[in-house]
Amino acid sequence: MKKLLLATALMALSAGFASADVVRLATEGAYPPFNFIDDKGEVAGFEREFGDEVCKRAALECTWTTNEWDSIIPNLQSGNYDVIIAGMSITDERSKVITFSDNYYPPAASAYLAASADADVKTGIVSAQVGTIQAAYVAESGATLLEFPTPDETVAAVRNGEAAAVFADKDYLRPFATESNGALVFVGEDISIGGGVGLGLRQSDTELKGKLDTAIKAMKADGSLNALIEKYFGPEGLKF
Amino acid sequence: MFAVCATPKAIEGLTWAMCYLTSGKHLDFYWSFVTVLLLLAITAPVAMALGFGGAMAARSQIAPLRWIGKAYTAMVRGVPDIVYFLFFVIALDQGIEYLNHLRVCEDLSQPVFRGLEFHVCAEAKVPPATASPFMFQAYSFGLAVITFAIVFGAFVANVIYGAMQAVPHAQLETAEAYGMSHGQVFRRVLVPQMWTYALPGLTNLWMILIKATPLLFLLSVKDIVYYARELGGTKTQAYDYPHADWRLYYFLGLLVFYLLMTKLSEIVLTRISNRLSKGQATAAGEAMRKAAI
């Protein structure tokens, strides 16, 4: 038994050292349908399938890891992984510290989800995930911002009355609205912020950015990206 | 795991519950209890050793050693745990990689820190990018053990330092009058008696350590609290087993676990405390002596 274990360990190690060109992808794993940990305990969702496809086209060997949203940029800069693929919107502020690939999801609508149609989203308490474009928007809007570390908690805050509404990507909120039997409703108009969702990279990784951009362009051109969006976001999902 | 679980959305009732509770993610959840217990089992003795060393250093006759001991306890105790876990771990990780960089990289012409980015060559990465996910988990776990041990070691050092001071000075003098050397006094008189004073403080620290394990998630080690939050959160149809917000039940489960751990620790620590009080010149020892007559 011991020998077997040792042999397996050695195999794993030698197999590991054989190929050097491995790209580590980091995601949050809590933002369905973009990315989530499925019931098998593995990363799944739109970005899982998209990421695997991009890696295949760019001839890169990719491995997945999860990281807390809060520290996802510092850990990229520290070199703990190479690409952020976590539904991250392209903004000027983020572009100052990291670089983005071409967007692989169009600038999407954000929306308010509330427990009642007359919820006060202009001056009331609005929940959002910390460090997101939506949180920044709420802070500017005059409403009182209530931040949570995970997206799920922002919706839970509305259910238990802590916040009047939650402000997040509409694609993320839509299943909550449709599956709540009318308990949760969208309030007000959709608001479009951000420059679409892109892969986050270190500013020095220009070569990797080039490879990924080429793959994304190809996927846009042959319609396979739109097909993926259709699969995960349904007919409401925005297409290129 | 079971054949019936292949189509989770078609099953109901007890079968659903059985499949749900044996999903891959739940199995990970159950394993995370082992992770936490393993962390406690490794961290506690290491922190104890660090603390003992720190206390000895703080009592040392040699000035620089004394300064190191005092500085260690003062600095670590003065910094909030969470800052320690965010800052120190990244610094430790980068430190390890930097040393490795100097050792294995061929091209050292490029600066390691470029603006906000930290660069070492691919061979110097710890663990290498090609390592299995298990290796990454083990590495994070190792960093967690070191960090926990350093933080809790400082608190242990202060408790043991205080306990050593509490041993009646007359006893040490008497021992020296019998002709024992410094080392002998330390081993034969000071340390055996010190434990009885240190134990209440150490008991507290053990309890705090048990409850501090959620900090593991900051180090991307997934512990029981992470899984309780993740599994309990509302699950939409995107998941195999959709359900409402069940965090309350998961956290009640954790409550039971923590209470059990506390009860178990109390039983063990009371026994140790009784054992250590035997024959000691303390109120507890005196009470035991009288009861035995």
Layout of secondary structure:
The complex is a heterodimer of chains A (240) and B (293).
Chain A (H helix, E strand, L loop, with lengths): L1 H17 L3 E6 L2 E2 L3 E3 L5 E2 L1 H12 L3 E6 L5 H6 L5 E2 L7 H4 L3 E7 L3 E6 L10 E5 L3 H9 L2 E5 L2 H9 L5 E5 H10 L5 E8 L4 E5 L4 H16 L2 H10 L7
Parallel strand pairs in A: 1-5, 1-6, 9-10, 9-11
Antiparallel strand pairs in A: 2-3, 3-4, 6-13, 7-13, 8-11, 8-12
Chain B lengths: L12 H9 L2 H35 L4 H16 L2 H24 L8 E2 L2 E2 L14 H34 L2 H9 L4 H30 L12 H9 L14 H31 L5 H10 L1
Antiparallel strand pairs in B: 1-2
Give an overview of the whole structure.
The complex is a heterodimer of chains A (240) and B (293). The model of chain A is unreliable at 10-20 (pLDDT under 50). Chain A starts with a helix and ends in a 7-residue tail after the last helix. Chain A contains nine helices and 13 strands. Helix content of chain A is 39%, strand content 26%. Chain A is α/β, with parallel strands linked by helices and 240 residues long. A five-stranded mixed β-sheet of chain A has the order 5-1-6-13-7. Chain B has a domain at 19-78 and 142-282: Orthogonal Bundle (MetI-like fold), CATH 1.10.3720.10. The longest helix of chain B has 35 residues, at 24-58. Chain B starts with 12 loop residues before the first helix and ends with a helix. The model of chain B has no long low-confidence stretch (mean pLDDT 88). The chains are: A alpha/beta (240), B mainly alpha (293). Chain A binds chain B through residues 12, 16-20, 22-24, 30, 32-33, 36-42, 45, 63, 65-68, 71, 74-75, 77-80, 82, 97, 150, 152-153, 155-156, 159, 175-176, 179, 202-204, and chain B through 8, 23-25, 27-28, 86, 90, 93-94, 97, 114-120, 122, 125, 128-133, 135-136, 217-218, 220, 229-230, 233-234, 236-242, 245, 247.
